[in-house]
Structures
1.
Amino acid sequence: MSSGLVDRHISFLEALRAAGMSVSLAEDIDAVAALGVLAWDRRETVRAAYAATLVKKQSHRPTFDALFDVYFPRMVGDGVGGADRRPEPDNARALADFRDELADVLAEGDQQAMLDLAAEMVGRFGAMPGRGPGLSSWSAYTALQRVAPGELVDRIVRALLVEGRVEDDARREAGRRVGGFTAMVEADARRRIAEEKGPEHVADVALRPSIDRLDFTAARKADLEQMHREVYPLARRLATRLTQEHHAKRRGPLDFRRTVRASISTGGVPLVTHHRPKRPHRTELVVLCDVSGSVANFAQFTLLLVYALRDQFGSVRAFTFIDHVHEVTSHLRPGADPGDVLADLAASTSHAALWGRTNYGRALVKFEESYADALGPKSSLLILGDARSNYSDLHLDVLKRLAGSARHAWWLNPEHRRHWDTGDSAASRYAEVVPMVECRNLTQLGEFVHDIL
Amino acid sequence: MPQPSSWFSSPDDAASRLAASGYLADAATATTAYLAGALEKPLLVEGPAGVGKTELAKAVARVTGAELVRLQCYEGLDEARALYEWNYKKQLLRIQASGDQSWEETHEDIFTDEFLLTRPLLTAIRRDEPTVLLVDEVDKTDVEVEGLLLEVLSDFQVTIPELGTVAAVRRPFVVLTSNATRELSEAVKRRCLYLHLDYPDAQREREIVTSQVPDLDERVGTMLVEVVHRLRELDLKKSPSIAESVDWARTLVALEIRDLDPKAVNDTLGVVLKHASDHEKALKGLKFAG
């Protein structure tokens, strides 16, 4: 008779694979071996064992944790204490009482108490009774709307100030606790749904892709902040990788004199050859980016990444456009804080628009008129945008001339390839002139930048 | 049924013994360290600079009484530096000294242990005492070296064409560290257990700082950890590491600073922040009240 443990293990692994993590059979066996030498009396130990054997990339960790919570839940239903508790009335008074209790717990910051309250909150205020058995469900959204922990921030701040914290610090801490609690409520709703409908159901719908695979166009505000934080490490990784690869290819022609000199110490046998260093060539990059609303995020990230990598280029000139071209190179000054750079770029967006409707054709013509000298035989042209030009004249001939005068030209499109040529997108017509690359997330962006350098 | 391993008997045992030697490990670190010993698999530790990745290997060596064999990786590292090398100078001498000996005899003679220079990987495998092998900063090497590591990490054996295959008498406890500047190959990762070390929470960092710098005033220690944590939130070019907060604590003790007021912070911030722009940003971001 099977206990179902192996089935649960297998389906957990299946879910991890479905979420985009590559879990090999060897790692599967490692995980079972690891569980074999451990005691199972603590859930966190089991989690650590699974994490050590299956998750080999930190960016996968949030996905792993969410799935682990679904497949190996913290408790069943309302837990041991909750099962024999009398059903509490659900009215305005009860809600107010609950909020008071929540504010106290959040002010204390006790993790365990927060977890318990999150479970209680979903159980009491997030239930969505169904018409029959198996149709009822749980909603973190409903529970959060009703209890509104976000409105408790001021109370928590006051409590923290009494403890002797500084205003800014207290506000940040309060925000973090409320954010953490919201995540707990969402996790608890997932746990309850998984319990009723099976974990596979939740694994499919309730998880978001990890931050480096998240589409620029689908990012929420919190995601964007996290992405900003990722840009610098990404640039650093790219720069290190590039230096390493350049070094590996550094061996130039044989340096005869040094080789012979070195051979004297080994009795005239040239055991080690010495080579002349190769002179690296540096690309002069010209970036032309669409900063209209639909693709503004993407343009920002790309500019920021280019800015962070500017040592790798001979020179960088950047232009933004909506229907008019504006040079923003001066904002990318060395040593500046990336946050300030971004703010400056956002502020200068208004210079790139006359009427505010994206017009690629007009922007290209203006660019050729005013800045044609930016492109030369040593420079590479990089155009960023979704090629949605509001059905205006595309001026393909201008683009052809621009691409012809540069050494290389690329077009980065933040849209999924299947959306190209839908509606007013002129992607494939521009792609005939300039090679167009799909670039939807940080991973693709990093790969592309690496390839052109 | 859990079997006691020769390294640690349980995660709790790992945690308490590491703590006794001055390395305060959290539950995940202790569990993973125990697993690395129990499953005899290499442990890949990733994380930002200065969170105690190398220190973990040293601590394991310390508490288990094993010897630490260290391979520091750098770009351009090759087989000759990592695995073994024939001592060709000595071989040349031997050939010149052989006089009228036949080539066969000489050949037999010059490819023996006497002319073999063992490098860290081979040394670790050939030792029959408990050994901790630390492969530091794997991400700095070229991809070819990873291929070299594969044979060593999966089978704990090294093939020397002239001598045959040398298999480990006793499997070493292998720790690989990486700053994640480059993605390691899937093949290496698959053979390792993975542990991501991050900056610790305030309480653990306070414990670490106090255990490293016992002379530090408790109140100053609390303030110091708080400031360091706020600095890490500031999105700096280089966030302060644990090693740097310990250095900062030492500085404060050496300068006999009893109170971490804005002036004291301004004077000593150079210990934790190493970029001019970070410095400015930090002073702007750390608005002190009172």
2.
Amino acid sequence: MTPLHNRLAVLLAGAAVAAIGSIVLARLELDNLRAAFETDARIVHRLLSQRTAQHDAVMAMLALLQSGSRTDRPEQRIPSVYPQILGVQQRSNDAAWPDAALSAAEDESRRNRRAAMAGVDFKAGRYQLVQAAVPASYAAQIDLRSMVPWEEWPMPRETSPVRVMLEYDGRQFVLQPGQEGSGWRQFDFRKRLAADSQPFDVVAMRNLNWTDLPWIKMLGWTLLTAATFAALLALERQRAERRRAEELLRLGQVARLNTLGELAAGMAHELNQPLTAVLANTQAARRLLDDESPELATARSAMQRAAEQARRASDVVGRLRRVVERPDVAGQLQPLSLEAAVRNALYLLEPELQRLGIKPAVGGPAVTVLAEPVALEQIIHNLLSNALQALAQVPAGERALHIESRAAPGQGTLTVRDSGPGIAADVLPRLFEPFFTTREGGLGLGLSLCESLASGMGGTLVAANHAPRGAAFTLQLPLAPAA
Amino acid sequence: MNAPLSPLIHLIDDDAAVRDSLALLIGTVGLRVRAWASPQDFMEKFDRGGIGAIVLDVRMPGISGLTVLEKLVAVGVDQPVIMLTGHGTVEMCRRAFKSGATEFLEKPVDDQQLLDTLQAAVQQHVRSRERNRDDRDARERYAQLSAREREVLGLIVAGLTNKEIGRALDVSPRTVETHRAHLFAKLGAESLAQLIRRYAALVEDAA
């Protein structure tokens, strides 16, 4: 999979997680709202049912308690105890109701042996409740608004979004206005009051608004998801960059080896051609001179050609020297931080450091020297690689690597010191010779190149052993003039 | 096939100095040399029927000596090929021998080694050409024999005496003697040993 596809996939996955999380959050919130709405509606239904049941009880009591005495009128005292009962009328056996509706209700009450409703007037917010009894029957006028126990009401009456109504015979009386919604979703509740005598339906509804969704939570979740996936992407990108850097490093090494191989092959061919001609010419000349009648002219011309070819070989060597021996770095000197160069080199060698379990100790003041960037990096890289190879030869517990910068007057130095086996006494004087190596399969060009590069930049590279054990390489370069 | 006067060495190298000096060196031992600067030119024009050897530089512009070698072998060139290289690797050497090179020499090459190798190669080529010619000759003569004569030859090669052959073929020893005389004449054999050496393989192939 390409990195682009990779990133697209991560982006899509992130968007999906954010969307699904938001939907779940919205659902949870809606469920909560619905549960709260239904609880409130049930409380409302219970409160109102209790009141209507109370009305029944009051009316039944009046019927039971009535005495023959006309002066004792308990029904007159009821409005002071039950504020929703505005007044109670009594009809004696011999009298008649002022209203035909009341008569019909009394008939119904007598038939059903319970109170019956008459004259429901939602405009005025009142209704009558009639209880048939002997000797007298009663009719109580009840105020709907006062009937509601507002102190026990589960919702703030003015601001609640829930609309609560009583419904009877297709007409409605609004107890709580509620609020308009955008109408994309609505909760409904409808239940008849428990008292059969007062068959009102409690109707509650809530219109949901878009603002009822948990936008803040959803936004928070989306941001969290975005942050997480961004972090994942960044991590992935970092890993990819790391891989690329390692790949480049490896390629660089391979390329360098290939270049050296090509150089060697080319050198062999370029030198072997004239040498072959020199050898063949001189040997032919000797054979010609050995003959009984020597062909002097041919032999002479063969010797002449041998000399020409020897010169050709020497030209090849001269050309090679100019190409290889002294890379021209003096031209591109610029102020460079030793610390940054060390950090770069350590970064490239990080896998090797980890493998060997080495924590390099980097110290000293910040020093800015005058150098060519690639050459400086090459020198430090080579010195560190050499140190790591030396350290690989000693037990893991004894591996230490010190890198220290120092500023002397006009000169900046960098010392790379390892606790490896050190440099043998007979090797030390030849250390910087080209093609001198103690390493199996080594080219013997690394340190030689480093020294050429250092001196090309007007500096030096010195090797020494230090006590108790190990090698120390000190690179000295001119300090950059203060800006 | 024209009988060559003396062996001819083909020398292919793009470097004029190397070409001229090696040609001079090879010429000092009396071998004829034809030098070629271009491998393509050589492959188009050289005389495949001639006796001799080919000296081929591995590293040449345009076409590698190894490729030239492979092409020569592919078209059935029978001259021995000696490869010259300035920087021989084991892999290159392996490939050269696998492709049919006779010898693989490193530049700069020592005169004695080169000349010995060339002499040996030329002798080898001459011998292989002779062997080929003898083989063809023997096959032609064998084809002229009658069926009865081939039977008799088979029994002679198997080591039977005239008497035993007569018994085996149910003819008289005198008749066997006649067939035998015809055999020797047709096959051009001068002795029993020569007859058996030259024709034993053919008899076995025919059986």
